[in-house]
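Sample entry (180 residues):
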Amino acid sequence: MLWNQIHTKLVRYLRRTLLPSMLKLTKRTEYGLIALMHLADREGEVLSVRSIGEHYSMPQRLLAQTLQDLSHVGLVQSQRGAGGGYSLAQPADAITLGAVVRALEGEPGLTTCHELDAMGRSNVCEIEPMCPTRSPLDRLRHGIWALLQSTTLQSLADSSLAPHQMFALPSTAPSEMVTS
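Predicted structure, serialized as tokens:
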């Protein structure tokens, strides 16, 4: 189906171009995106976890937990009962990849200085005051985050767009460009 093709293109594009060994969405987030796109394709319908899970051969328990988390942040609505299930809580052009990633994984980090310990504190690094990579990698992390925040489910669904057109790339002024 069209959504499957779009998802496959998106995952390949992200893995090929955006730091393949550093940025990787979890299966949970991939399943969440697939479910959201499936719900967007059937706008106005209430779909069960079972129907979505069977359609894409996804584990229903993990899908249910993922949709519950997306419901808690207001991206999907849940309805209980025999005809219950999930539907989008917002239009597809208002839901960003950033909102989905934040809800299911938190903001992306590229280095250990962006990670938090079990108590929610930043990791302490002995070389942080003189680290030559922190600032450039921090700019890159912010750029990736801006890309996720500006990409909507609707832009992913638009099959007329080439992969590079799906994303509203953050602009960089010439004075901000790094020269080597």
